Task: inverse folding
């Protein structure tokens, strides 16, 4: 039997994209309309933001672990979180979790390395871009990473929290992501990590100045592989 996947959600739009990717792409491997069992638990984004904005990663970890225990209690055998930022708490989560987790940055970086990319532009919340999640994962894989300058980081952060988490996809913001990626390309980056799970909703890979690594869908596909292997 495929493993029961538990989704520890944080923001709605990214979690929804991860969930639909997991369920719909499973049919290619398992047969028409089929997918592994999947459950989701979500504490409010507001509760997460209290810990994130205070730099209190133990509080963030406690929320993630509460979701993990609830999901494990209904049979989840493997956990994922379609939220890059809260992975900064993962070192506090994994040792105390009742079931194993996949790590979104580890999965993205593995795909980047397999694709021959060497220097990644990481786009996401300011907490992610300025934090260790992708820095550590890239370093462990022997890859380099860069983030946009401070003005771009602040504007990307505003777009995420004022627009994307509410499903607002403004044309100006779509164009802005391409402008940032073009600047990162000029600095030597050869791929862009869409390191907020809502950013894939706003970026068209066909028109992006850099190849894109869609963290949301890559995590969903990794979970699907693990569930049915």
Result:
């Amino acid at each position: 039997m495929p493993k029961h996947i538990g989704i520890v959600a944080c923001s709605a739009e990214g979690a929804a994209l991860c969930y639909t990717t997991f369920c719909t792409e499973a049919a290619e491997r398992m047969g028409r309309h089929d997918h592994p069992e999947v459950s989701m638990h979500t504490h409010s984004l507001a509760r997460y933001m209290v810990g994130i904005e205070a730099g209190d990663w133990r509080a963030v970890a406690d929320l993630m672990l509460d979701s993990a225990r609830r999901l494990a209690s209904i049979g989840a055998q493997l956990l994922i979180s379609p939220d890059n930022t809260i992975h900064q708490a993962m070192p506090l989560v994994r040792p105390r979790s009742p079931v194993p987790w996949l790590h979104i940055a580890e999965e993205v970086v593995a795909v980047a390395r397999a694709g021959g990319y060497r220097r990644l532009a990481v786009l996401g919340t300011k907490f992610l871009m300025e934090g260790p999640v992708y820095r550590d994962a890239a370093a462990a894989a022997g890859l380099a990473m860069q983030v946009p300058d401070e003005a771009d980081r602040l504007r990307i952060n505003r777009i995420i929290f004022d627009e994307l988490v509410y499903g607002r996809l403004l044309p100006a913001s779509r164009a802005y992501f391409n402008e940032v990626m073009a600047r990162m390309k000029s600095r030597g980056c050869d791929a862009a990590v869409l390191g907020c799970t809502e950013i894939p909703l706003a970026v068209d890979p066909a028109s992006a100045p850099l190849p894109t690594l869609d963290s949301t869908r890559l995590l969903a596909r990794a979970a699907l592989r693990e569930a049915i292997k």
